[in-house]
């Protein structure tokens, strides 16, 4: 029941109108088809009368054929008019929707302009620009300081790497020498060997006399 008393909107009216126009277009198409059928029948009838030699009947049928063809051509004109009306309705609907959207946008802009103070907005933008510049300068100073710290740290690390490399090389040389050098236990003679290899004075004198050296 509520739908019966509901007020129709513009969209509802346009939909109903388009529905009626589509129905009219279908009816025009059916009428044209019927006229074309009558046209073919009348042409056959004229040919039949012509074969029998009935000139008067041919003239009458020919006049009717002319009127029928005019009526058929009118259906094309009416159909074109209906199509134009449907297109025009759609264009008007689009224009109305666009006008409604523009109206809503205008009201929104008006409300925003009332709440927005141009002077305050300009001041806010200037403050933002100033603080943004400060932040940029601070960030640049911090980056420069960090770069100096990291550069110095890098120099120290590089120097330490060089020292470690030299020490490693020396360590390798020392270890090589230690590998090639005989161990103390192997080179030092034992006490028994020392005693065995000690030559007495008497033995030396005996060997000298044997050589003829006094």
TrEMBL record:
Record-linked PANTHER family: CHARGED MULTIVESICULAR BODY PROTEIN
Keyword tags: Coiled coil
Gene Ontology biological-process annotations: vacuolar transport
Protein name as it appears in the record: Charged multivesicular body protein 2B
Pfam families: Snf7
InterPro entries assigned to the protein according to its UniProt record, in alphabetical order: Snf7_fam
Keyword Coiled coil in annotation: yes
Superkingdom as given in the UniProt entry: Eukaryota
Gene giving rise to this polypeptide: CHMP2B
Coiled coil segments of this chain: 18-52
Assigned protein family: Belongs to the SNF7 family.
């Amino acid at each position: 029941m509520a739908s019966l008393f509901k007020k129709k909107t513009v969209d509802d009216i346009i939909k109903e109108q388009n529905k009626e126009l589509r129905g009219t277009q279908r009816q025009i198409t059916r009428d044209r088809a019927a006229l074309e059928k009558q046209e073919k029948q009348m042409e056959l009838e004229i040919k039949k009368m012509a074969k029998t030699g009935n000139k008067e009947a041919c003239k009458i049928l020919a006049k009717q054929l002319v009127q029928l063809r005019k009526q058929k051509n009118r259906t094309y004109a009416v159909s074109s008019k209906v199509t134009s009306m449907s297109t025009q309705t759609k264009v008007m609907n689009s224009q109305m929707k666009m006008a409604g959207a523009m109206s809503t946008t205008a009201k929104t802009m008006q409300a925003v302009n009332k709440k927005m103070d141009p002077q305050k907005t300009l001041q806010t933008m200037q403050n933002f620009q100033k603080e943004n510049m400060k932040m940029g300068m601070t960030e640049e100073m911090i980056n420069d300081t960090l770069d100096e710290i990291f550069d110095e740290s890098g120099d120290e690390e590089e120097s330490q790497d060089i020292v470690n490399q030299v020490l490693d090389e020396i360590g390798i040389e020392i270890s090589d020498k230690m590998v090639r050098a005989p161990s103390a236990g192997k080179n030092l003679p034992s006490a028994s060997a020392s005693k065995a290899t000690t030559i007495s004075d008497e033995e030396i004198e005996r060997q000298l006399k044997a050589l003829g050296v006094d």
